[in-house]
Amino acid sequence: MVSPKYAACLLIIGNEVLSGRTRDANLQYLGQRLNQRGIRLAEARVIPDDAEVIVAALNECRVRFDHVFTTGGIGPTHDDITAACVARAFGVALERNAEARRMLRRNYKSDAELTEARLKMTEIPAGASLIENPVSHAPGFRMENVFVFAGIPRIMQAMFEVIVDTLKGGAPVLSKAVTARLPEGILGGPLADVQKRFPDVEIGSYPFNRDGIHGASLVARGTEPARLEEAAAAIRQMVRDLGSEPIDGDLGVPPA
Amino acid sequence: MVSPKYAACLLIIGNEVLSGRTRDANLQYLGQRLNQRGIRLAEARVIPDDAEVIVAALNECRVRFDHVFTTGGIGPTHDDITAACVARAFGVALERNAEARRMLRRNYKSDAELTEARLKMTEIPAGASLIENPVSHAPGFRMENVFVFAGIPRIMQAMFEVIVDTLKGGAPVLSKAVTARLPEGILGGPLADVQKRFPDVEIGSYPFNRDGIHGASLVARGTEPARLEEAAAAIRQMVRDLGSEPIDGDLGVPPA
Question: Do the Cβ atoms of A188 and B77 come within 8 Å?
Fold first, then answer.
C-alpha cells in the first residue's frame, strides 16, 4: 500500500449525481492532481443535498483526513446548501462577506443585478478564507482543512489550482504501467509473488478486452522512482517468463 | 426531499478509481436503474483496496441502508479482496464454492485451465447466494442485503439485471425537466418559492452555459405523476413570468 503522509477525502454533494442525471468529473481530476502533490485521495463520497447528511459527513471526515474537499452546492438556488452546512459543522455563523460581494460584483454592470439569489453566494462561514474563482467570480472558501469548491468541473479545477500550492503534501505518487497480453487468470499467481517482493509498491491489475485482445494493465504506484522502476522491471520479466512480450504503458485505460 | 421507502448505498472499491486511473461508470447506471425500481441511491463511496476500510464500510452501510451494492475487487489477482472482506464483515468463512466452480468452468476447455488465480474467483462467503454473470461466468454474490458485483461496467450491469427483480422497492422516482434560458441568479428567488409550494417534490437547478446561452435545467423529481406535472407547470409559469419561454426537457445535461 502506497501511504503518502497526507490523506484527503472528497465529498461530492448533489442529488443530481446520485440520481444519475450528472456524471461526476471532479474525482478523477482531483485524484490525479493530489497524487502529483504527494497526497493520497483516500476516500470519496457522493452525498445528497441533505443538511443532516452533509454536516455529519463534514464532521466525520475533517477529523479523519488531512484535507477535505467538497464540490457542489455553492450556487444561488435553494438546493445550494453547502456553505450553510459548513457553518453548522464548525459551529460558526454564516455571514454575508464583503470581499465575496466585491468579487461577485465584477460580473455585473450595476448593484441592481445583485439579486438576493446572487447575494446568497456571498454568504460564507465566519472565519473562512475565500478561494478565488477565476471563471465566474463567485468564490469558494476554506475553513480550517475543508476546501469548498463549485461543482462545475471547469470552475472546480480553477479553484483547486488557486489553492494547490498551499496544500501540505509529500513526495509525488508516481506510476509505471506495463501492459500484458495475457489474461489475469494466468498473471494472477506470479503477480502476487511480485507484489510480495515489493511491499512498498502498490501493484494493481486492470483487465481489458479490446480489439480481440484479452489483457491486463499492471500498474505499479509508489513514491520512490528507483523502486518503481525495479518493480516494473520485475513485472516485465514475469510477463516474459509467461511467454509473452510486455508493452510499456497502460494500454487498458478505459474510455472516460 | 423525495424519500422512497427504500434507500441504497454503493461502495465502489478500487485504488484505480481514487488515483484517477479509471473513471467510474457504475454509479450513474445504478442511480438511474434504482430510481426506476423506487429505490433511492442515498450515498456512494469510493474506497481503496484496503481490508480494514472495506470491512468498516460494509458494516456501517449494511445497517444504515436497505440495500448495499459493491463494485470491484472480485477478480483473480492479489488486489481483489472484496469477497474476503465480505466474509470478515459478516463473520463467516470464505469457502471455495462448487456451484461457482461449475459456472466458471464454462469458460475453459479443461480443468487444467482452472488456475489457482481463477479458483480464487470461486471463493465465496459461507451462506451467500451466487449472482450469475452472463458475460464472463465468474459469479457475483449476495450476502443478506449486500450485493457484490464486478467492477467492469458491462459485467456489473448484467449482474444487476439478474437480481433487480428481487429488490424490494416502491413507486418509481420520476422526473420532469424544464429548461430555462435564464441565469440561476434570476431564477433562484422564484424557484425557491415554487419549491416551498411543493414540499413533496424535489426540485434541483443545474446551470449550463452552452452555445452562448446561460441557462438552467430545472428538474423536478417525485413519485406522484400528477404532483410532478403540477410542479413542472408551476416552473413553466415561473419562467414565463420572468419573461422567457420555457423548454420542456433537460437541455443542460453535461456530456458524460
Answer: yes
Alpha-carbon distances of B116 from A116, B79, B121, rounded to whole Å: 65, 15, 9
Within a domain: A255: no
3-state secondary structure of B71: strand
Per the structure block, which three cell numbers stand in for B220? Answer: 423536478
Same domain flag for A162 and A43: yes
In terms of residue numbers, what domain contains B90? 6-166
**Contact: B203, A79; criterion CB under 8 Å:** yes
DSSP B172-223: PPEEEEEEESS-HHHHHHHHHHHHHH-TTSEEEEEEEEETTEEEEEEEEEES
Distances in whole angstroms, Cα of residue B181 to Cα of each of A80, A91, A151, B246 = 20, 38, 20, 7
Residue B141 and residue B181 in one domain: no
A contacts of B15 (beta carbons < 8 Å): 202, 204, 221
B245: number of Cβ within 10 Å = 9
Q: Which three cell numbers stand for residue B35?
A: 430510481
Q: Give me the helix-helix angle, A153-163 and A26-36, nearest 10°.
A: 20
Instruction: Judge residue A60's burial from the number of C-beta atoms within 10 Å of its C-beta, 0-12 exposed, 13-18 middle, 19 or more buried.
Output: middle
State the CATH number of the domain containing residue A51: 3.40.980.10
Q: What is the pLDDT of residues A112-151, one digit of tens each?
A: 999 999 999 999 999 999 999 999 999 999 999 999 999 9
Q: Are residues B66 and B104 in the same domain?
A: yes
- The interface residues of chain B toward chain A in range 19-48, judged by CB-CB distance below 8 A, are 19-25, 27-32, 35, 40-48
Sign of CA dihedral B237, B240, B244, B247: positive
Q: Within an 8 Å CB–CB cutoff, is residue A111 touching chain B?
A: no
pTM of the complete model: 0.97
Q: Is the dihedral of CA B19, B25, B29, B35 positive or negative?
A: positive
Are B131 and B179 in the same domain? no
Dist CA A77 CA B216 (whole Å): 11
Q: Do B188 and A42 touch (CB under 8 A)?
A: no
Q: Does A52 touch chain B (CB under 8 A)?
A: no
Answer for the pair B195, B232: CB distance below 8 angstroms, yes or no: no
Q: B256 lies in a domain?
A: no
Of B138, B166, B194, which residue sits at a domain end? Answer: B166
Closest by CA to A8, choosing from A126, A164, A175, A200, is A164
Q: What are the pLDDT digits (tens) for A6-32?
A: 999 999 999 999 999 999 999 999 999
Say yes or no: ipTM exceeds 0.95. yes
